[in-house]
């Protein structure tokens, strides 16, 4: 069955960097658009970044643009989120998700409802 497993979260100081990884199995990774979302306590899950099937197109939330970088490795069937210049407000549980429904020409999706499979999440805490 489909499985997405995030790793790499932790406790870091403001201004630090962290790289999250999402290992996938049981899905057709090459046909999946991948996304990263996050959810802070008491808040709704929000879009962070997405990447298309080839890795040639990416989309970022305004709050992370210029600081976060999403990438994918088709051979390893993984997607990563490089997070630089971390801020207190980046503290959240981070989830990766796979969109298998949208066709190639559909723009990258920012709504959680567009994604079919989710990981269990990894905690990122930015604190001094």
What would your notes on this structure say?
The protein is mainly beta. The protein is globular and about 40 Å long. The chain has strands at 3-7, 10-12, 18-25, 33-39, 46-51, 58-60, 68-73, 78-83, 92-99, 117-118, 122-126. The chain has no helices and eleven strands.
Summarize the structure.
This protein is an all-beta fold.
Strand runs, count: 11
Calculate the mean pLDDT score and round it: 96
Whole-number radius of gyration?
14 Å
Which sheet architecture does the biggest sheet show? 7 strands, mixed
Topology as a string of helices (H) and strands (E): EEEEEEEEEEE
Write the layout of secondary structure elements.
Elements: E1 3-7, E2 10-12, E3 18-25, E4 33-39, E5 46-51, E6 58-60, E7 68-73, E8 78-83, E9 92-99, E10 117-118, E11 122-126
Any descriptors?
globular; 128 residues; mainly beta; seven-stranded mixed β-sheet; four-stranded antiparallel β-sheet
